[in-house]
Specification:
Layout (H helix, E strand, L loop, with lengths): L3 H14 L3 H16 L3 H11 L13 H42 L4 H6 L2 H43 L1 H8 L1 H39 L1 H6 L3 H27 L1 H25 L5 H13 L1 H9 L1 H18 L19 E8 L9 E8 L4 E5 L6 H7 L8 E6 L2 E2 L5 H6 L1 E5 L9 H5 L9 H10 L3 H4 L19 H15 L3 E5 L7 H15 L3 E5 L11 E6 L2 E6 L1 H7 L2 H21 L1
Parallel strand pairs: 3-8, 3-9, 6-7, 7-8
Antiparallel strand pairs: 1-2, 1-4, 4-5, 9-10
Helix pairs in contact: 2-4, 2-6, 3-12, 4-6, 6-7, 6-8, 6-12, 6-13, 6-14, 8-10, 8-11, 8-14, 11-12, 11-13, 18-20, 20-21, 22-23
């Protein structure tokens, strides 16, 4: 009986194969025709042996050598054509599944990326898709080709000697039972292989990303040991999978050998009784032996099928992940930047208390709001609520009078620009990084003007390739300050009315901070800006400073007002002021 889950998976895979049904049908017909030529070879043996090896003009078999060449030529041509067509279909399916997975990945909420390691997702898109296609087109081609071959040979055996054919048929139930028992074990091993491959990819990613820390702290041996455990465990899983898959071959061959032995014994008896001819017996044995190869390939299909079904489960698990919630029906053209936080609260899933609680704040268009507070006070959560990366669990945020949940996500985010502390650029040119996300073709003059406003021309013009310079993976060929200024230039080019700066200068040295801060000051002019600040010196000119503590607004006012209040802000300002000489001394040393 066919497993319902397996049937469901195959039905979903067929959705991707459906647009290519004509090509699949043609490839299947050509494969079937190629396989149909297989029984012709043992069929030629009967007249050849029964009528003798006479050769000459009077020989009835003078056509035989030409027939053999013709059969092999026809089979080769049909086989090549069917393989080519099925490979084309397979690669189209791989392409479409990967495209759908990647497109869906970009629609997933923040919580997905917090929940799953990136290696797991990468493995699904790069490796699992190949396993799925093997379970579809490759397996289908083998089933058709070898299935038709086996059926054709069985038909020829039935025509030659139905008694001997019945003996050969006894092989089938034995093979079915053995294949079924191996399938369950193979599926479990395929899942274990996938999970361990994710662990290995994660270990490699972390070693590459943290290579400086590993070297400074002498953690090479520790990392090698960790990788050794993961790699060795994967080796064990692969070996157990190989054993389980390989068992199908000897079981098939041994069962077939018993059947052939019995057939030979019965055929010898029939020959002695005059019930069969030498040519008929030789043809029967040849056809029986020819069935071994296709039967073996059919038995070996169990491994790629189970691998493909396991991979399909992983792929559809990603595609079934709920995308970002978008309940909006309003499309905004250009907002003024009037933002209201009305009793806003947010609690992370499974958290015991709110990360933000009862936030009331009215922000006027063009106002600069700074967010400060101790670590864990809710600053980043506050900033993540604005673009709806996180959805409020209580209260409401309104932009120009519209609740943000009523605004289409795309439209909402078009009104915002974001510059964060950790700027990760794309492995592309500086120009393309600055123009990233642009909805129209931009001229170099426009890109250059944005770079100038971000104080980035100072270093871009000194590079040999200028704006055509490749920044490397994550922008690693540039310094932190240079990456920040490219991110600011991108924000300048977007010209959004709302600006979010998430600790954009906290990781920079003094010189880089001076350049970046100057760029940010220009960028914030005329925009409603939210600045999450670690260094209080960078937000002294803010229109208002909001001090958060344990998810609540503890203080709010200008720099001078908060210092006069002598509360949390004054304390933080004093602590940072006391720390500056020591930090400077450390830098000079």
């Amino acid at each position: 009986m066919i497993d319902k889950n397996n049937l469901k998976l195959y039905k979903r895979l067929l959705i991707y194969a459906r647009p290519y049904y004509k090509a699949i049908g043609l490839g299947s017909v050509l494969a079937a025709l190629s396989a149909a030529t297989e029984p012709l070879l043992p069929a030629l043996m009967k007249p050849m042996l029964d009528q003798g090896f006479r050769f000459g003009e009077r020989s009835p078999l003078i056509w035989l050598p030409f027939a053999v060449v013709g059969i092999f030529f026809l089979r080769g041509a049909l086989g090549f054509a069917s393989t080519y067509i099925m490979a084309w279909v397979q690669n189209k399916i791989v392409y479409q599944i990967r495209l759908d997975m990647f497109a869906h990945l970009l629609r997933l909420p923040n919580t997905y990326f917090q929940k799953y390691p990136s290696a797991k997702t990468i493995n699904r898109i790069t490796n699992d898709v190949n396993g799925v296609t093997s379970a579809s087109t490759t397996v289908l081609l083998t089933i058709i080709k070898d299935g038709v071959t086996v059926i054709g040979l069985f038909a020829w055996l039935l025509y030659l000697n139905w008694q001997l054919m019945l003996i050969a048929v006894t092989v089938v139930p034995v093979l079915m039972i053995s294949v079924r028992k191996l399938s369950k074990r193979l599926r479990r091993l395929m899942h274990a292989e996938h999970d361990n491959m994710v662990m290995m990819t994660t270990a490699i990613q972390e070693a590459i990303s943290n290579q400086k820390v590993i070297k400074v702290y002498g953690g090479e041996a520790q990392e090698v040991s960790r990788f050794d455990r993961v790699a060795n465990y994967l080796r064990g899983i692969l070996m157990r999978g190989t054993v389980s898959a390989a068992l199908g071959t000897p079981i098939t061959q041994l069962t077939s050998a018993f059947a052939v032995a019995i057939i030979i014994a019965v055929a010898m008896y029939q020959s002695a009784e005059g019930m069969t001819t030498i040519g008929g017996f030789a043809s029967f044995i040849t056809a029986t032996l020819m069935m071994n190869a296709p039967m073996k390939r059919l038995a070996d299909l169990n491994a790629p099928i189970q691998r493909g079904l396991a991979a399909a489960e992983h792929i559809f698990a990603l595609l079934d992940e709920a995308p970002e919630r978008d309940t909006g029906s309003v499309t905004l053209d250009k907002v003024r930047g009037d933002i209201v936080f009305d009793r806003v609260s947010y609690r992370y899933p499974e958290a015991e208390r709110d990360a933000l609680s009862a936030i009331d704040l009215v922000v006027r268009p063009g106002e600069r709001i700074a967010l400060v507070g101790p670590s864990g006070s809710g600053k980043s959560t506050f900033a993540n609520l604005l673009p709806n990366f996180l959805h409020v669990t209580g209260g409401e945020i309104r932009i120009d009078g519209h609740p943000i949940d009523s605004i289409h996500l795309t439209s909402l985010r078009q009104q915002m620009a974001l510059v964060t502390q950790e700027v990760l650029l794309f492995n592309d040119t500086i120009a393309n990084n600055i123009a990233f996300g642009a909805t129209r073709q931009l001229s170099l003059e426009e890109i250059r003007a944005a770079a100038k406003a971000a104080h980035a021309l100072e270093f871009i013009d000194t590079l040999p390739d200028g704006f055509d310079t490749l920044v490397g993976e994550g922008g690693m060929r540039l310094s932190g300050g240079q990456r920040q200024r490219i991110a600011i230039a991108r924000a300048v080019l977007k010209n959004a009315p709302i600006l979010i700066l998430d600790e954009a200068t906290s990781a920079l040295d003094n010189e880089s901070e001076r350049y970046v801060q100057a760029a940010l000051d220009e960028l914030m002019v005329g925009r409603t800006s939210f600045v999450i600040a670690h260094r209080l010196s960078t937000i002294e000119n803010a229109d208002r400073i909001v001090v958060l503590k344990e998810g609540r607004i503890a203080e709010i006012g200008t720099h001078a007002e908060l210092l006069a209040l002598n509360g949390i802000y004054a304390y933080l300002h004093q602590v940072q002021g006391d720390a500056k000489p020591a930090a400077a001394a450390t830098g000079d040393a």
